[in-house]
């Protein structure tokens, strides 16, 4: 009732630090309800506060939570939008920080309230600009995202150096040129390519985030690099599958291994991922809906920041390329089990012993 609403108070604690828990309390004369959550959950203190304000407004305007002619209060995964008259554009301050980057709250984000009392699917964050670097006399602290990126780049760089040396050895020395080593070389090449493309893609996205480029159209460069990166990740798994298949043919299917040449292995390693990627791109481009097609926070934020990059928004269509990864891993487990079984019998059967010796040739 209205009297209950007057006696209701809402208290929301500060944003919890890493490893700490936060409490949100709603109290009345009769009871106290405590919501306790960990920072790692998808729900945030700001969202809880928005929900409690909505609840308080619902009590005050019972039985109609939202007045006629208004869009209801709503949380868009970044900001809490208040009830707004229909056919108008709501303006509220930008978020103070996102991914460890501070933003100017004197600027406003906007969202259209349609004449039918529903919010527009997209929020305009184009005016939300990140603050420039700290003053020159103060040390600039790296955000967790930047630290993680530096560690990734350092690791990928060391990986590229080691892989480049291994590939050079396999290619330069003619005595090492055989089908087995060619398969090894292709697998290492997929890791080298995926490392390189990642180191090109991620800094570009970081630069756009640091510059406060939000709500802009997805650039052709970003979209192309991400598609290539997804393809190369697939080739990593398929060439690992080729490694397992080659050993299986060598040890278990000895008489059939001559039928599968390098061209067949290359078709599996490079061609199969291409077919999977084309299917994923076509199906996702056709059937991906608006930004609410996926309820996960990650998907909502990606769509809100880069509305034109619907292809990069995580949703259930991603199983089109994630499924084959899991499938080839399961097949490799089957291959490994078969090879270990054959080799376990090698001591008693001379023919099998000669096959298992080939594993170390």
How is the topology of this model organized?
Blueprint (H helix, E strand, L loop, with lengths): L1 H5 L2 E4 L8 E7 L4 E7 L6 H16 L9 E2 L2 E2 L4 E2 L2 E2 L2 E6 L3 E2 L2 E2 L5 E6 L30 H29 L6 H32 L9 H32 L10 H26 L9 H9 L13 H26 L5 H8 L4
Antiparallel strand pairs: 1-2, 2-3, 4-7, 5-6, 8-11, 9-10
Helix pairs in contact: 3-4, 4-5, 4-6, 5-6, 5-8
What does this structure look like?
Helix content is 51%, strand content 12%. The model is unreliable at 1-41, 134-138, 212-217, 290-295 and 297-308 (pLDDT under 50). The radius of gyration is 28 Å and the shape is elongated. The strands form five sheets. Strands 1-2-3 form a three-stranded antiparallel β-sheet, with helices on one face. It has a two-stranded antiparallel sheet with strand order 4-7. Strands 5-6 form a two-stranded antiparallel ribbon. It folds into two domains: 42-124, Irregular (Hormone receptor fold); 144-287 and 306-335, Rhopdopsin 7-helix transmembrane proteins, CATH 1.20.1070.10. It has nine helices and eleven strands. The longest helix has 32 residues, at 179-210. With 361 residues, it is mainly alpha-helical.
CATH superfamily of the largest domain: Rhodopsin 7-helix transmembrane proteins
Q: In which range does the helix fraction lie?
A: 40-55%
Domain module tally: 2
Strand content: 5-15%
CATH topology of the largest domain: Rhopdopsin 7-helix transmembrane proteins
Order of helices and strands: HEEEHEEEEEEEEHHHHHHH
């Amino acid at each position: 009732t209205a009297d209950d609403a007057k006696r209701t108070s809402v208290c929301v604690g500060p944003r919890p630090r890493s490893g700490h828990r936060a409490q949100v309390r709603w109290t009345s004369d009769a009871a106290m309800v405590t919501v306790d959550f960990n920072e790692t959950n998808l729900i945030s203190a700001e969202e809880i506060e928005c929900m409690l304000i909505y609840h308080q407004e619902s009590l005050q305007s019972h039985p109609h939570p939202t007045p006629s002619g208004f869009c209801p209060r709503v949380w868009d995964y970044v900001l809490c939008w208040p009830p707004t008259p229909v056919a108008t554009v709501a303006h509220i301050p930008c978020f103070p920080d996102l991914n460890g980057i501070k933003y100017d709250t004197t600027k406003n984000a906007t969202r259209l309230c349609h004449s039918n009392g529903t919010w527009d699917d997209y929020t305009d964050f184009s005016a939300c600009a990140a603050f420039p670097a700290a003053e020159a006399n103060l040390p600039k602290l790296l955000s967790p995202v930047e630290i993680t990126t530096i560690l990734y780049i350092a690791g990928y760089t060391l990986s590229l150096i080691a892989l480049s040396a291994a590939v050079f050895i396999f290619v330069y020395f003619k005595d090492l040129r055989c089908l087995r080593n060619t398969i090894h070389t292709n697998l290492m090449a997929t890791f080298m390519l995926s490392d390189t493309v990642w180191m090109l893609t991620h800094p570009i996205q970081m630069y756009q985030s640091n510059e406060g480029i939000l709500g802009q159209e997805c650039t052709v460069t970003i979209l192309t690099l991400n598609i290539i990166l997804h393809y190369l990740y697939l080739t990593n798994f398929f060439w690992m599958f080729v490694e397992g298949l080659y050993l299986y043919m060598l040890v278990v299917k000895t008489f059939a291994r001559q039928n599968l040449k390098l061209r067949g292995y290359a078709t599996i390693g490079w061609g199969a991922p291409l077919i999977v990627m084309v299917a994923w791109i076509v199906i996702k481009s056709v059937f991906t809906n608006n930004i609410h097609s996926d309820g996960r926070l990650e998907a909502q934020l990606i769509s809100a920041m880069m509305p034109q990059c619907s292809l990069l928004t995580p949703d259930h269509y991603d199983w089109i390329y994630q499924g084959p990864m899991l499938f080839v891993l399961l097949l490799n487990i089957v291959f490994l089990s078969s090879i270990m079984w054959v080799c376990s019998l090698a001591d008693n059967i001379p023919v099998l012993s000669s096959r298992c010796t080939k594993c170390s040739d």
